[in-house]
Amino acid sequence: MGLNQIDCIRLLFVLYSSLGLGVLGIYFSLSKKIEAEEGNNIPKPLKQSLSPKSKEVVGKLSGLLLLIPLLAVLLFRAWYRFGFTKFGADLTIISYLFSIAGVLTAFSFIVAAKNC
Can you say how many angstroms the Cα of residue 110 is from the centroid of all Cα atoms in its chain? Predict the structure, then answer.
């Protein structure tokens, strides 16, 4: 196609935005009938207790699984910052953008939890 680097980034931005809009459209097209009703006789899960050894293993695995997304976020943010600074963007402005994006993401989690 012969696109330069800026055009490729613009194309990726458009593709990523259109995917987000597609997901948003799918979300709003879902019917309310897919949710479980309050009056249904939904069976409660069985209550099982774990042995102390199993609890230790589950705790270690949970800690490991907690670190993976945390490290991935840090790695991707560092990669994005490097990419932006390569094009001459100021590191402080990039830091403000990522901070605002993090706050908005946290706020969206709160709003999503209240809507459930």
Answer: 14
Region 88-99: mean pLDDT is 78
Residue 98 pLDDT: 78
Burial class (CB in 10 A: 0-12, 13-18, 19+), 112: exposed
Q: How far apart are the first and last CA of the chain?
A: 46
What per-residue confidence (pLDDT) applies to 21? 92
Amino acid at 38: E
C-beta of residue 49 within 8 angstroms of C-beta of residue 57: no
What pLDDT does 22 receive?
92
Amino acid residing at 65: L
Distance CA 35, CA 26 (A): 15
> Is residue 84 packed enough to be buried (19+ CB in 10 Å), middle (13-18) or exposed (0-12)?
middle
